[in-house]
Amino acid sequence: MSTTSLPVPDRSPRLREALLAAAFTADGLLDLLGAPAYAALARSETVPALRATRGDAPLDTLVRLFLLQQPVPYERAAAALPLAECAEDGWVTRVGDEVRATVDVRPYSGPEGQDWYIVSDLGCAVGGAGGIGSREEGVVLGVGGASTTLAGITVRTPVASALDVGTGSGIQALHASQHASRVTATDLNPRALDFTRLTLALSGVAPAELRQGSLYEPVGTETYDLIVSNPPFVISPGARLTYRDGGMGGDDLCRTLVQQTGDRLNEGGYAHFLANWQHVEGEDWQSRLSAWVPFGCDAWIVQREVQDVTQYAELWLRDSGDHRTDSAEYAARYDAWLDEFEARKTKGVGFGWITLRKSAAAAAGNPSVVIEEWPHAVEQPLGPAVEAHFARQDYLREQDDAALLAGHFTLAAEVVQEQVGLPGAEDPEHVVLRQHRGMRRATKVDAVGAGFAGVCDGTLPAGRILDAIAQLMNEDPVLLRDRTPQAIRLLVEEGFLEPVPPAG
Ligand SMILES: C[S@@+](CC[C@H](N)C(=O)[O-])C[C@H]1O[C@@H](n2cnc3c(N)ncnc32)[C@H](O)[C@@H]1O
């Protein structure tokens, strides 16, 4: 694989037209390959797709050329592509009677079914357990699970300016191009900026402003309405692969990125990060992370998974294909990883999402900071639920208990009640409210909580509902009004209940 010369996007509209005409799209691929081969390709397994592309239609040719790294006969390539231009612009090279791709071009379906393309280094379109196809320092990867997770959790309200830090193949900038008037994409690796340029051009969206450098250095003191970053968050014993190893010690790269965001966000702006953080002996992980939240920002940090240090080292050794190297080399690398963790007193590593929002309340010294663990499946795209979380925090911040009791609430869409207990028992042991949207949370409630949630249709104020429940259950209404606001607050915070805005 060459890491020097890359295609120029000069005539990408013509190439895009040819790709679309051949149905080289996410849907076209699925039709041609069938679901199992399509899914196998996403796991870097190419044999099923090779078997499914033995035909001589342009689509078979393009799949072999751009996804499977196969040389294809010149005549067949010429039937599928404006070949002279593609060769001149550097997308393909001719070797005798055959043509080879210089980069991986992978169809990627946008959120509204847009036919987009992600351009990355050959053999690096899919990372993960299979290991990428190259261990060169500056390789640029395609779309991985982390990329789509970040794209999914991002709040997508229309904004004037967006910044993608560590743009790689450009996937986050591509998404941002749909709702930001101006997109800036940065990367430490200059090749990544070239790939982003190609991805955006071939996807037919507006170009981004591309700047090379580390973290916020290329944007100076500029501020943005939206910042996204899937940074090189891997905590590793050395800066080996630019796409994943941040090159700072421990989790310092993620910490620095998050801490420096306060000055780069406009009022009301969101910043979304994927991150890894150390679990250090004798230190509470939530306290560690709360120290990362910059002044003037609200924060919602969700830990999705924790791995012990051995699982963590193995994950990233496989990611870089080290498990396929000589066993002594593998053992030495593994050892170095464990040495690094030992020196840092690290016993585990948390994976998760960090969302910041710049707010006046936070600037006034009253930030909302929620740091929690939620390892269960969520609804993606989660962006609307993220925005709703912050709106509910704003609401709760302003309501004392009396105001809560005067407030009106509705039960969130698709919340159901489950009764849990022994089969045949007369009464359930406990009642659970379960969401089918957003974070898909579940929470145990008592009889008052279940009854309260059940009647919340926005018509009666909370206090009046509690009075009725007190009467039904033979309880003292004053005591009930006294002890319930905390439970209501929690149900609102977690999105089971939605406040109804006052009329007018
Ligand atoms: C995990 S990749 C993410 C790529 C892409 N944004 C995505 O979501 O798939 C991290 C990117 O950060 C870049 N990078 C590494 N160190 C950096 C730094 N100090 N400052 C900015 N970008 C950096 C890498 O070159 C790589 O492109």
Plain-language structure description:
By secondary structure, the chain is α/β, with parallel strands linked by helices. It folds into 3 domains: 12-102, no CATH class; 141-381, Rossmann fold, CATH 3.40.50; 399-499, Outer Surface Protein A, domain 3. The protein contains 21 helices and 19 strands. It has helices spanning 12-21, 26-33, 35-42, 47-52, 58-67, 74-80, 83-89, 145-153, 171-176, 190-202, 252-259, 285-290, 309-319, 327-343, 360-363, 383-398, 401-406, 447-455, 462-473, 477-483, 485-493; strands at residues 72-73, 92-95, 98-101, 104-109, 115-120, 159-165, 180-187, 209-212, 224-229, 265-280, 297-308, 346-358, 369-373, 408-411, 415-420, 430-435, 442-445, 457-461, 497-499. The strands form 5 sheets. An 8-stranded mixed β-sheet has the order 8-7-6-9-10-12-11-13, sandwiched between helices. Strands 1-3-2 form a 3-stranded antiparallel β-sheet. The protein has a 3-stranded antiparallel β-sheet with strand order 18-14-19. Helix 2 packs across helix 3, helix 18 packs across helix 19 (462-473) and helix 19 (462-473) packs across helix 20 (477-483). The radius of gyration is 26 Å and the shape is globular. The chain starts with 11 loop residues before the first helix and ends in a 5-residue tail after the last strand. The model has no long low-confidence stretch (mean pLDDT 94).
